[in-house]
Amino acid sequence: MDLLADVLAVGGVRGALGARVEGAEPWALTWNDIPGAAFYALTTGSAWLMVPGHEPLRLLPGDVVLLPTGAGHTIGSTPGAKAPQCDAAAAAHARLTGDVLRFGSGEVHSHLLAATYSHDPAVSTQVLSQLPEVVHLPAVDGASCLDDSVRLLARELAYPQLATAVVLNRMVDILLIQFLRVWLARRPEEAKDTWFGVLDDPLLSAALTKLHADPARPWTTELLAAELGVSRATLTRRFASTTGQAPGAYLTQWRMDLAARRLRDTTDTLDSIARSVGYTSAYAFSRAFSRDRGQSPGRYRLTARAADDATKAYSTA
């Protein structure tokens, strides 16, 4: 099993809102209230990224930067530049039509590609939130796959064709995976004490693979440790130092994430959902789910579906 792919898939991580941004000196744009992660790739010129609490960050051609929690920020031609809020409707239109978002007046010197990443609110296991608030990869870090993907993305944005929206979303998803690959390879010290540290630890990687592959199995820490050939104490210590949780707590969270998605997205009975995530009865599952989510599975199903329907209606309006 590919753990990273599984976590991103269950977490519903999706990229969208790719657009070309052109900056004419002087220029700046401010973007707040981002409902996910924000991503920029600078293709020509230079730019400065300003995030509250961080030193201004200069971007050069080929640089990419990810704001995993969607921190409010300003990006522009000089540090401290002032700008109005980004027009989300104009950005969406630019993605669909291939138009350009231009800021400033005069000759254009800087070109950027922008995207956002959203996730499924029903899932609490979200690994992007464990990344640093600002992740900057200079061009040298992405000398192969990232550079190639950015060029392909820029071309698709510049010359939209049939199903361009589908192509853009797939490419933006690929770009995130390649970004994470480069970050993990170049900055292993930053990943060490987060969920991503699991990927570089053979013991923990094997442990999570077993839990993800068969969440319904009646796992205990003792059973998991025995299958891995280590002591319970060793597994617990290594697991907690990297994920911040005991194996049992992680498994419960993962089970509740899987159950929440099925409650919202299917008409499966509570009994079948309970069995699929390792509970012997709907009663036992309901107690565990209520503790974790603060409401019964039935109530959650109603509220989650209502919220999902409202989101879909808004997005198609």
Question: What is the gist of this entry?
Answer:
With 317 residues, the protein is an alpha+beta fold.
Your description of this structure?
The protein is of the alpha+beta class. It has 2 domains: 3-191, Jelly Rolls (Sandwich); 201-308, Orthogonal Bundle (Arc Repressor Mutant, subunit A). It has helices at residues 3-10, 88-97, 145-158, 164-186, 188-191, 202-213, 221-228, 232-243, 247-265, 270-276, 282-293, 297-316, and strands at 14-24, 28-31, 37-44, 47-50, 57-59, 64-67, 73-76, 100-103, 108-118, 135-137. The chain has a 6-stranded mixed beta sheet. Helix 3 runs antiparallel to helix 4 (164-186), helix 7 crosses helix 8 (232-243) and helix 9 packs across helix 11 (282-293). It is globular, with a radius of gyration of 22 Å. The model has no long low-confidence stretch (mean pLDDT 88).
Level of helix content? 40-55%
Residue-averaged pLDDT? 88
What is the percentage of strand-forming residues?
15-25%
Principal-axis shape equals globular
CATH architectural grouping of the largest domain: Sandwich
What's the main sheet like? 6 strands, mixed
The total domain count is: 2
Number of strands: 10
Distance between the termini: 39 Å
Provide the fold topology.
Layout: H1 3-10, E1 14-24, E2 28-31, E3 37-44, E4 47-50, E5 57-59, E6 64-67, E7 73-76, H2 88-97, E8 100-103, E9 108-118, E10 135-137, H3 145-158, H4 164-186, H5 188-191, H6 202-213, H7 221-228, H8 232-243, H9 247-265, H10 270-276, H11 282-293, H12 297-316
Parallel strand pairs: 1-8
Antiparallel strand pairs: 1-9, 2-7, 3-6, 3-9, 4-5, 4-7, 6-10
Helix pairs in contact: 3-4, 7-8, 9-11, 9-12, 10-11
